[in-house]
Design brief:
The chain is α/β, with parallel strands linked by helices and 260 residues long. The chain folds into 2 domains: 116 residues, D-Maltodextrin-Binding Protein, domain 2 (3-Layer(aba) Sandwich); 96 residues, Periplasmic binding protein-like II (D-Maltodextrin-Binding Protein, domain 2), CATH 3.40.190.10. The strands form 2 sheets. The protein has a 5-stranded mixed β-sheet with strand order 2-1-3-10-4. Strands 7-6-8-5-9 form a 5-stranded mixed β-sheet, sandwiched between helices. Strand 1, helix 2 and strand 2 form a beta-alpha-beta unit. The longest helix is centred in the first third of the chain and has 30 residues. The chain starts with a helix and ends in a 7-residue tail after the last helix.
Length: 260
C-alpha cells in the first residue's frame, strides 16, 4: 500500500511538471505569428538580412516574403492577397492602393536608388546614351508593371533616344529588374537598364555608365502596412525596424541611399 502511494505521488508530480511546462510554452505558441511581406525584388538581399535581424527581437515569429515587380505585387493585393506589409520600388503602386482604401495609415519612404546601364562582363562598355542608341537589343522592365521600366522610359525619353529605339524594335521587355539583369548576363541583350543595387549583385554584368538622377522621377521606395493585415502590430514593428538606424544601415550596405 505504501508502494502504491509513492507511485501515485510520483505520477502526480510528473503530471504537475508537465502542466507547468505547458503553461510556460502555451502563451509563447499563442504569440507566434506569420508576417507576409510583399516587396520589390530589388530589395531581396536587403530585406532578407533585415528579417534575420528583426527576428532576434521576435524569435517566435516568421517573416514570409513575396518578391516580384511592384506592379504585380500591387495587383495581387488589390485582388485580395493576404499581405501584411508592402514595400514598393515606386510611389505609384502604393498611392493606387491608398486611393482604394487598402492601407492602414500612411506610407513612408525608406530608401532611394539610381539607374545604371549594364552590359555583359567582358564586352565593350556602353558609356553614353549615344552609344546606347546603337545597340541591337536593349533590356528594360515592362513599363506597364515594372517601376524600373517606367524609370527607364523616362530616362531614354529625356536623352532623346526612346522613340528611335521603339521604332527600331530594339526593346526586350522583362517582368522585373532581375530578369533584365539575367538577359544581360546571358548575352541575350547587348545592354540593360537596372538599379545600381541590382548591378552590385551580379558577377556577369558590369556597369557602363550611371543614368543622371534628373533623367527620371526620383527613385524612392515607400513601405506601408495593409489594412487587411492579420498581424497589424507585428507589421508596424517590421516597418519601424526598416526605418530604424539598424535597418537603414543594412540597406545602405546593400547600396541603397537614404530616402530624400
Amino acid at each position: 500500500m505504501t508502494c502504491s502511494l509513492v507511485k501515485s505521488q510520483q505520477v502526480f508530480s510528473a503530471s504537475l511538471c508537465l502542466v507547468l511546462l505547458l503553461g510556460t510554452l502555451w502563451p509563447q505558441a499563442l504569440e507566434a505569428a506569420e508576417l507576409t511581406v510583399s516587396a520589390a525584388i530589388s530589395l531581396k538581399e536587403a530585406f532578407t538580412e533585415i528579417a534575420t535581424q528583426f527576428k532576434k527581437d521576435h524569435p517566435n515569429d516568421q517573416v514570409l516574403f513575396n518578391f516580384a515587380a511592384s506592379g504585380e505585387l500591387a495587383q495581387q493585393i488589390e485582388q485580395g492577397a493576404p499581405v501584411d506589409v508592402f514595400a514598393s520600388a515606386a510611389p505609384k503602386q502604393i498611392q493606387t492602393l491608398d486611393k482604394k482604401g487598402l492601407l492602414l495609415g500612411s506610407s513612408q519612404l525608406f530608401a532611394h536608388n539610381r539607374l545604371v546601364v549594364v552590359v555583359p562582363k567582358g564586352e565593350a562598355k556602353v558609356i553614353s546614351f549615344e552609344q546606347l542608341a546603337k545597340v541591337k537589343l536593349l533590356g528594360i522592365g515592362n513599363p506597364k508593371t515594372v517601376p524600373v521600366g517606367q524609370y527607364a522610359v523616362e530616362a531614354l525619353t529625356k536623352a532623346g533616344i526612346y522613340q528611335a529605339l521603339l521604332d527600331e524594335k530594339k526593346f526586350v521587355y522583362a517582368e522585373n529588374v532581375r530578369q533584365v539583369l539575367t538577359y544581360v548576363e546571358s548575352g541575350n541583350v547587348d545592354a540593360g537598364i537596372v538599379y545600381a543595387t541590382d548591378a552590385r549583385t551580379s558577377e556577369k554584368a558590369t556597369i557602363g555608365f550611371p543614368v543622371p538622377a534628373n533623367y527620371s522621377e526620383p527613385i524612392v521606395y515607400p513601405i506601408a502596412v495593409l489594412k487587411g493585415s492579420k498581424q497589424p502590430d507585428l507589421a508596424k514593428a517590421f516597418v519601424a525596424f526598416v526605418l530604424s538606424a539598424q535597418g537603414q544601415t543594412i540597406l545602405q550596405n546593400k547600396g541603397f541611399l537614404r530616402a530624400k
